């Protein structure tokens, strides 16, 4: 009987941990997180200038959430200062974080990117 309670308790604990972890993954990024990612990676995304390889700190930061924070604010106004097409380059330079055919904000990641 005690063994059954232990198994049920472990199962419930696993469900709770899974639920908390999955809700954290889907939680929106804070403005601090977004700001940090653009501080570290902005030079690689800037519009109107040649491509600049990202810094290691940029890649380390965006790998934590697969560019979720950057993509969260990729809107039409993003293109006023940043280049949509450099998102794919940044993803590739940091380990192919974006899935071809998926969306990063309003930007559709091209096939073969």
Automatic annotation (TrEMBL):
Residue ranges of every copy of the Bifunctional inhibitor/plant lipid transfer protein/seed storage helical domain listed in the record: 21-104
Signal peptide positions on this chain: 1-22
InterPro entries membership: Bifun_inhib/LTP/seed_sf, Bifunc_inhib/LTP/seed_store
**Please, which domain of life does this record's source organism belong to?**
Eukaryota
Q: Which UniProt keywords apply?
A: Signal
PANTHER family with a match to the protein in the record: BIFUNCTIONAL INHIBITOR/LIPID-TRANSFER PROTEIN/SEED STORAGE 2S ALBUMIN SUPERFAMILY PROTEIN, PROTEASE INHIBITOR_SEED STORAGE_LIPID TRANSFER FAMILY PROTEIN
Protein name per the record: Bifunctional inhibitor/plant lipid transfer protein/seed storage helical domain-containing protein
* Originating species: Arabidopsis thaliana
């Amino acid at each position: 009987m005690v063994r059954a309670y232990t198994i049920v308790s472990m199962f419930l604990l696993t469900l709770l941990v899974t639920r908390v972890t999955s809700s954290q993954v889907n939680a929106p990024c804070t403005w601090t997180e977004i700001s940090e990612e653009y501080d570290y990676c902005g030079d690689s995304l800037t519009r109107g200038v040649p491509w600049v390889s990202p810094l290691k700190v940029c890649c380390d930061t965006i790998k934590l959430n697969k560019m979720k924070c950057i993509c969260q604010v990729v809107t039409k106004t993003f293109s006023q200062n940043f280049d949509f097409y450099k998102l794919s380059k940044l993803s590739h330079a940091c380990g192919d974080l974006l899935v071809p055919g998926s969306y990063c904000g309003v930007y559709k990641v091209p096939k073969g990117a």
